[in-house]
Fold this protein.
Amino acid sequence: MKIRTMTPVDWPEVARIYAEGIATGFATFEKEVPPYEIWDKAHTSSCRLVAVEQDTITGWAALSPVSGRCVYGGVAEVSVYVGKTGRGKGIGKLLLSALVDESEKAGFWTLQSGIFPENEGSVRIHLQCGFRQIGYRERIGQLDGVWKDNLIFERRSKKVGAS
């Protein structure tokens, strides 16, 4: 297993894995994968990673800015997705751990995640990678007409910013 920087050429495989996550019904409120140009604008230019196993992309991770205001420049939201065939192999934890490392090199001091409570694997890897649950948003949004809750996780860097 190798973790490397994501490139635009990786988009078809990243999009496929994103679609598999959307299909679970507990990875995101999104209903469809956006075109690359929209996804690209919504994510930071740094801290984009893919997991590769035997020349096949098995997962990806990236950051999105939480705000356009300069005061939040070191705060980002985490996305981690693992394809169907890669789940349960520790790929998500490897990606999230590498994303934490890359985020600190890029100057991020706070990482946030909003996770559906039923996404137990995501909750587990966030806790294993130093995140803590800081909140619970009840009925924060609808997915297919069903109100969904969201657990809010945060990780503060001990290397960057105020610890």
